[in-house]
């Protein structure tokens, strides 16, 4: 039996600003999804990161299945209705179209899906970010799948030694999806050359070269490409299979502990470090520092074990303390230089419009 894992995420309204969904909204979304467990779905798990609600579901319908996407759409729509009743901020923010048209791609929510034949033991993790950009996972995933300095399995395990295949998306393409497929380690420098630009390029999927098995998928939607203007952030979700022929769960820790500077945070217009946090953490009132959470599960016949929170053990408190220092240091320079995004990446356009007016005053 082939199992499909689908992760679907949307910001449909939050309490007191762009912070977190209310309990009633979360409960409504979960209720709609849970009704289908045992029918359309094998299992479901609902959580949030900042103000984004994440649905993890398992089923046998394959990726991009209209019934699965419609269920998520329904859950987000009914959740939005509750958010409106409660007067929450940004109710329905990520639902950019009024009607469902067979697929969530292009409607606003972030989607990552993969299909595979379950291994006898099938550990996997779900990563979800808030207040950042689709390329936010580029560096940690590059390090864990392609760099032996971080990924000890690349040296120590014959299963990992042949390396991984990266499918990378050009996020600037608005007309059609545009990908390049590059093999590590042979094309390492080319992979690095693309992934360094996390505003423009994002990993879409990663594959084991030895076994041809899918290892990771990342959502790559840019909301701006759909709406033609800034409407909220394109913070990614990812599904990653781990252990044996893939990197081990704990090998993901050090790359995420680096907390690279990524685009996002307040008004989607600055650079701050990507902070690993526990699942169900509200957005930070420290300038909306970008956040990533991770839950790992074991899968059996398409059903989930209870989750383990990947960034909850005591090491992460120390990491977070350092990330906060890094973030505070950057914020000290306010609008200046790399603290604020380059002009073409700014999600609020007020400054660009003002500069055009100022141009007229030059002589
Ligand atoms: O990053 C933010 C929101 O991100 P989000 O859409 O929740 O991913 C915030 O910093 C907002 O940009 C900021 O609070 C201003 O919001 P508005 O007043 O324009 O809604």
UniProtKB/TrEMBL annotation:
Biological process terms in GO annotation: gluconeogenesis
Binding, Mg(2+) 2: 51-52, 130, 235
Residues binding Mg(2+) 1, per UniProt: 11, 18, 51, 93
UniProt cross-references to InterPro entries, sorted A to Z: FBPase_V, FBPase_V_sf
Binding site for beta-D-fructose 1,6-bisphosphate: 18, 89, 102-103, 131, 243-244, 267, 348
Pathway as given in its UniProt record: Carbohydrate biosynthesis; gluconeogenesis
Binding locations of Mg(2+) 3: 233-235
Amino-acid positions noted as binding Mg(2+) 4 in the UniProt annotation, renumbered to this chain: 234
Protein's UniProt keywords contain Membrane: no
Binding site for dihydroxyacetone phosphate: 18, 131, 267
Pfam families documented for this protein: FBPase_3
Required cofactor names: Mg(2+)
SUPFAM superfamilies xref list: Sulfolobus fructose-1,6-bisphosphatase-like
Molecular function GO labels: fructose 1,6-bisphosphate 1-phosphatase activity; fructose-bisphosphate aldolase activity; magnesium ion binding
Function of the molecule: Catalyzes two subsequent steps in gluconeogenesis: the aldol condensation of dihydroxyacetone phosphate (DHAP) and glyceraldehyde-3-phosphate (GA3P) to fructose-1,6-bisphosphate (FBP), and the dephosphorylation of FBP to fructose-6-phosphate (F6P).
Family, similarity comment: Belongs to the FBP aldolase/phosphatase family.
The record's note on its domains: Consists of a single catalytic domain, but remodels its active-site architecture via a large structural change to exhibit dual activities.
Oligomeric form and interacting partners: Homooctamer; dimer of tetramers.
Descriptive protein name: Fructose-1,6-bisphosphate aldolase/phosphatase
Organism listed in the record: Thermus scotoductus
